[in-house]
Design goal:
Distance between the termini of chain B: 111 Å
Strand content of chain A: under 5%
Oligomer: heterodimer
Order of helices and strands of chain A: HHHHHHHHHHHHHHHHH
Distance between the termini of chain A: 104 Å
Structural class of chain B: mainly alpha
Number of strands of chain A: 0
Structural class of chain A: mainly alpha
Number of strands of chain B: 0
Number of helices of chain A: 17
Largest sheet of chain B: none
């Protein structure tokens, strides 16, 4: 077959036989496919399973699904157009994923789930996924707290302390923090200590502050379920007042940040000082760590640490 | 007698007979593949129309609310960024509206009867442009084939009948053996090319977003779920939230 013939017989336009979707059509369809990622009846689809549980009224699953939307979205049109769905920028208004998250939190909240109530309250405070609404925020926090859940009590106390979702009221804050602290809520104890230390809307009281700092640094606590990083401020404050446990914990924190996590802006001499002070007060765990640290420090650094230990006086 | 008969069939004639057979079978196959392509296209177009009418229009509504939110913001707190967002959001809303309410949404439900499918296969076999005798013939056939596809998509049996009735199916052009052989070889090669082209088209169609969505919908149907209805409900929910956001912004705007 000659090339000439081939050219003559070249297909004119065959495409019109088959269906051709315009880009805009494909985009609109692709959007649906993203949205149904959570509907797909596929047992390998964890989102589908979660959604089924959520739809059947499992409130924990509802909160988890809300979290999925809130933090792992990436497929709603706003996420795809590059607007981050975390933080508080103006782009936050367009996120369908955040609206969806809020809807699931609300559902769980209405069924009495404390976690859902706290989450939807926070959404109302910041206007994330729902229109900002302080009275709704307060209603849900109160409902969570009044159920007797320590997290609900802590969050309500915090809202009163910060004036988020309701007028600032330190006395109410303390009232709810105390209830949470009674249930061994470490953050509530720490916040109580901080409020007394700074005299935040209440008379300053070092003894009260120390009482709560002591409570929160009790050896019996298992820090495993709490994030130790949240306590470093308290440890530092309590260490200044001469609290051996806090001195040890703060010294240990500085030590591990410097040597294990490479935070070289921290001062190893300071770590040595706190560990020495704790060791002198009979904190046995501090002795071992102090010696371990001493082996790493130079003569000059050790001398400086010694000097600081001798000069140190507890804050009153 | 027999010897004489055998001697009378020249190698060219033998080749011609073989090629005629090959052409006939390829003609069958080509028609079959064209039918498959038309079926897939028709089903997808009909599904797409269903999707656009059920869900696409809701996305258009949602995008309109998002655009209103963006425009309201840009008006209240004008900045280059806010204006850009408002423009983008409005452009998106317009595009979604045009797509959801466009021509594609009008496609009828596609469910061709066995008779109609048989008829289309006949028509394709008879008028296929790749079986044209010359380039003028091919041009005419291409037009006819496009017409036949449209008629099939519209499930219009009468139109297909008319195309078939007007066509002279005879292959006998009174040409010599050599000329016929060349023509048939050319037709076979054209037809083969078209078959592989169709395969490419089918592959493209089956990988398209709309085909994937259709597969999802069919999978869901097996477990007694109506994916389009669920999707529509989901988008309605989103619209409800977008509206609430918008109304809240507007009322806040009034109080400040």
């Amino acid at each position: 077959v000659s090339e000439e013939l081939e050219r003559q017989l070249a297909p004119i336009n065959r495409r019109d036989n088959a269906l051709v979707l315009k880009d805009s059509q494909s985009q609109l369809v692709a959007r649906a496919r993203r949205d149904i990622a959570v509907f797909l009846p596929d047992t390998n689809n964890p989102l589908f399973q979660l959604r089924q549980q959520a739809e059947s009224g499992d409130t924990d699953a509802q909160v988890k699904l809300g979290n999925q939307y809130r933090f792992l979205c990436g497929w709603c049109s706003a996420c795809l157009s590059g607007k981050p769905c975390q933080g508080h920028g103006p782009g936050i208004l367009f996120h369908e994923c955040l609206r969806e998250a809020a809807a699931w939190y609300l559902k769980a909240a209405e069924l009495g789930n404390v976690d859902g109530q706290i989450k939807i309250a926070h959404a109302y405070v910041d206007g994330i996924g729902v229109p900002q609404n302080q009275s709704e925020a307060e209603r849900w926090l109160r409902s969570a707290a009044e159920q007797g859940d320590m997290w609900g009590q802590y969050e309500l106390g915090r809202a009163y302390r910060e004036g988020k979702g309701m007028p600032q009221d330190p006395l109410e804050a303390i009232r709810w923090y105390l209830k949470a602290a009674d249930q061994r809520h470490l953050y509530a104890m720490q916040d109580l200590g901080n409020m007394y230390e700074d005299g935040e809307g209440i008379p300053q009281s070092t003894s009260e502050a120390l009482r709560y700092f002591a409570m929160a640094t009790d050896d019996d606590w298992d820090y495993g379920e709490w994030d130790p990083d949240c306590f470093t401020g308290m440890w530092m404050a309590a260490a200044e007042y001469g609290f051996a446990k806090a001195q040890y914990l703060y010294g240990e924190f500085l030590f591990s940040m410097f040597y294990k996590h490479g935070c070289t802006s921290l001062d190893p001499v300071k770590a040595s000082m706190w560990l020495s002070l704790a060791a002198t007060s009979g904190e046995t765990r501090a002795c071992k760590l102090r010696d371990e640290l001493a082996a790493k420090l130079s003569e000059d650094q050790l001398a400086e640490a010694d000097r600081r230990v001798h000069e140190w006086k507890p804050k009153t | 007698m027999l010897n004489q008969l055998v001697r009378n069939v020249s190698p060219e004639e033998e080749e011609l007979l073989r090629k005629r057979e090959e052409l006939a079978s390829i003609r069958e196959m080509l028609a079959e593949r064209e039918l498959e392509l038309a079926d897939v296209s028709g089903r997808l177009a009909s599904f797409e129309a269903h999707y656009l009418r059920e869900v696409g229009v809701l996305y258009a509504e949602l995008d309109d609310w998002n655009a209103r939110i963006a425009e309201f913001r840009a008006e209240k707190e004008p900045s280059a960024d806010a204006n850009q967002q408002a423009n983008d959001a409005r452009k998106q809303a317009r595009q979604t509206y045009e797509t959801a309410h466009g021509e594609a949404a009008g496609a009828k439900h596609f469910d061709p009867s066995p008779d109609l499918r048989r008829l289309f296969r006949e028509v394709a076999k008879c008028i296929h442009p790749d079986l044209a005798k010359d380039s003028a013939d091919q041009e005419r056939r291409t037009r006819l084939m496009a017409e036949a596809n449209l008629a099939y998509r519209a499930q219009d049996a009468d139109a297909l009948q008319r195309i078939l009735a007007d066509e002279d199916a005879s292959d006998d052009l009174g040409e010599g053996i050599g000329a016929e052989l060349i023509r048939i070889i050319r037709q076979i090669s054209q037809a083969k090319k078209r078959v592989s082209e169709i395969e490419g088209e089918l592959e493209r169609l089956l990988k398209s977003e709309i085909a994937l969505l259709k597969t999802d919908a069919e999978k869901a149907k097996q477990s007694d779920r109506d994916l389009m209805a669920e999707l529509a409900a989901g988008v309605r929910e989103k619209i409800r939230f977008a509206k609430a956001n918008y109304n809240c912004l507007v009322s806040q705007g009034k109080h400040t």
